[in-house]
Design goal:
Length: 141
């Protein structure tokens, strides 16, 4: 059975999902990476300070990639970095009012896109998909 598995399906689905999110976020002038990062900072930031390394860990991205995304968000006026009292080297990521206002639109776009991805799936299907995706992720370096 394992011999019949073809990982190209995952690549194709990944490409399709990326294009779907690219299209959704382009409606508000952001890239997929910027929109996803903004959403993560907004949701995680409600409970704690968020730092660049948190974004790197959340999306499993290299530091240079995250730096580029954050710089784009800073240039667009969506976030700024603030020093923290415990360690002046650390800079927490703080969303601007402009980003917070945009979050509602982005959140709706993400909800619509997520609904498109799981359309026709039962709750059991979605749970199984989530469980299997977690297993795949755990298998990868």
């Amino acid at each position: 059975m394992k011999e019949d598995f073809d990982c190209r399906k995952i690549i194709v689905i990944g490409n399709q999902i990326r294009r779907l999110f690219d299209g959704a976020f382009s409606k508000v002038g952001l890239t997929n990476a910027q929109g996803s990062t903004l959403c993560f900072i907004y949701t995680a930031g409600r409970y704690r300070d968020v730092f660049q390394r948190d974004v790197e860990d959340e999306f499993d991205l290299r530091r240079s990639s995250v730096t580029s995304v954050l710089q784009g968000l800073e240039r667009g006026g969506y976030l700024h970095r603030e020093s923290v009292s415990e360690d002046a080297r650390l800079k927490k990521l703080v969303l601007t009012d402009k980003a917070i206002e945009l979050y509602e639109r982005i959140s709706s776009l993400m909800d619509e896109t997520n609904a498109t991805i799981v359309r026709g799936m039962s709750n059991a299907d979605m749970s199984a998909l989530d469980r299997l995706m977690s297993k795949v992720k755990a298998n990868l370096p």
